[in-house]
Amino acid sequence: MIDDLVVRQADVFRNKMGIEVLTDHRAEGIDRVGRVVTGKGPQGVFAIPYDHLLVATGATPIMPRQPGWDRPGVMVLKSLDDGRRIKAFLASRPVRSVVIVGMGYIGMEMAEALRAQDIAVAMVKPRPALLPWLASELVETVSATLEKAGVAIHTGFDVAQIVDDGDRLQVMAAAGASLTADMVLVAVGVRPNSDLAAAAGLALGPDRSIAIDAQTRTSDPAIRAAGDCADAFHAVTGQRTWIPLALRANRTGWAAADDVCGKPVTLPAVVGSAVFKVFELGVARTGLTAKEAADAGFEPATVTIHTASRAHAHPGASRIQVHLVGDKGSGRLLGAQMVGREGVAHRINTAAAALHAQMTVEQFSQMDMAYAPPYGPAWDPLLVAANQLIKTL
Ligand SMILES: Cc1cc2nc3c(=O)[nH]c(=O)nc-3n(C[C@H](O)[C@H](O)[C@H](O)COP(=O)(O)OP(=O)(O)OC[C@H]3O[C@@H](n4cnc5c(N)ncnc54)[C@H](O)[C@@H]3O)c2cc1C
């Protein structure tokens, strides 16, 4: 049941915590001088005065504007209501094939969910690389896994329009190719929901996210921002960045509350740790890619290794791939990526901890990591990769 995904219903806030929760109310303006938020709700317009204001408006899925993107059957997945709409659509008619526009983690997770219902899936995107941030050898593994699971991958497919022929949807590429589908899922990324903040004159950060400091304060100290709409500092580059993910969203919410209540708070920087599952594979990253490192002024060196996920004689071992990025100038570890059937999701956190500690690759290679045959080789795959990278550095 989709409702089981709701962690806390609005009534819990109202009845147990004494918080006035106004659902179906849309904030439309911030009067910073009068300190009032205005908007519209079921009873008409509202105006709510504030001493402190928190903007936590999240992110919005990007929806292309070419002809046909508003057809019934063209869906996005951002909210639970979107999930309900997709489920209702799939239940309302025979859906034999779906085109997924975009090849990010939401598109891939949906590809798996749709294949589990025996629905044919084609994924399309205009650019040539399946996951542009992932090292090429690791991309090959993801690509092979998708193809083995029956997902057709069409890179270089720039959707120009979607035509409803009365029965099915035709997804047409600028170059002339076309795919037929009963449903189209658009998963081409999100942008921060910062229009309200921008209209109020608050300073913006990367990708038009709301710029905040380590106390979650915006350029107006009476207004804080938290979650996907807000930016962050990157622990590796020291620069502002925008990486919309759940832990950071939660953490900034807590920090904003602490700051309003007078508890000293200093938000940590982020390293962009992320993981997702696609069929039997785990795909994980933390820190910078080689390109991001070069763009940030580092002199990146990389290594990609593959090794067994368990001690060599242990049954059930599978292949695990590790890609590390280091800086030739300082010797620092800058980033890590991993792909494998097991041991990826939590292992990436070791590299994340090293990035927070600003370790060199040499220091990282000396970390005391746990070993037992069912969980990995005596030399953990991360250590094997670090030892290789030291040679390049
Ligand atoms: C399908 C999917 C899978 C995901 N999986 C992962 C994962 O595995 N790991 C991970 O780290 N992250 C994941 N994420 C991202 C994660 O869900 C977000 O980082 C997180 O939910 C952000 O929380 P938030 O409170 O900032 O924003 P949201 O949860 O988007 O909440 C923002 C709220 O503000 C409301 N709002 C916006 N504008 C206004 C306005 N003007 N007036 C009133 N209300 C407004 C919105 O209606 C919404 O309720 C996933 C996201 C999706 C869509």
How would you characterize this protein structure?
The protein has 393 residues and is α/β, with parallel strands linked by helices. The chain folds into three domains: 25-55 and 193-260, FAD/NAD(P)-binding domain (3-Layer(bba) Sandwich), CATH 3.50.50; 61-190, FAD/NAD(P)-binding domain, CATH 3.50.50.60; 274-392, FAD/NAD(P)-binding domain (3-Layer(bba) Sandwich), CATH 3.50.50. It has helices at 10-17, 80-92, 105-115, 136-148, 195-199, 246-260, 290-295, 348-356, 361-365, 381-392; strands at 26-31, 36-41, 44-49, 53-55, 59-61, 74-75, 97-101, 120-125, 151-155, 159-164, 169-173, 178-181, 183-186, 190-192, 223-225, 232-233, 240-241, 274-278, 281-287, 300-308, 319-327, 333-340. The strands form seven sheets. Strands 6-13-7-8-9 form a five-stranded parallel β-sheet. A five-stranded antiparallel β-sheet has the order 18-19-22-21-20, with helices on both faces. A three-stranded antiparallel β-sheet has the order 1-2-3. It is globular and about 70 Å long. The model has no long low-confidence stretch (mean pLDDT 96). Flavin-adenine dinucleotide (FAD) is lined by residues 26-27, 56-59, 77-78, 106, 193, 196, 227-228, 244-247, 249.
